[in-house]
What we know:
Rossmann fold, 5 helices, alpha/beta
Amino acid sequence: MTILYLHGLESKLSAAKKAILEQYATVIAPDLDYKNNPDAVQQIYEIYKTEAIDYVMGSSMGGFAAYHLGLAFNKPVLLFNPALVKRSVVQNIPDFKAPSSGFGQVVLGGKDTVVDPSDTLSFLGDQLKRGFDYHVHLRAEMSHRTPKDIFEEEVGLFFELQGIVR
């Protein structure tokens, strides 16, 4: 199995978090430049469209990209504080033919001052009307960055919902 993990705007997937993901699958974590490439999502799609991707995950800007690529690849997504509504840099949204349903787990920090969780909840509400099954986990204690313990717990819950136990 393979996870495509997309990092946030000014971050990278840490070795500790990558090790958590590697307990479940092979991890592909490309280095992305969202600031200088407004077509990063389309570019990622072109690079990985022939790969056997099983899950798409991401945080913040990477959550935005993972959301759209999950639709394009028709794969389950795990999103941490995804920038689905507002972004600080321009990113073009490709016109992927979206499936009529899908699964996603979205983790939102109640103390996030970078990505407003209420905007994300409103966005997801509209997606539910299209038949998407989203599990939303509101973490009141979490800010924008996801602590390792919460990351590990949420990844475990995601795979448990997929019927996979490590």
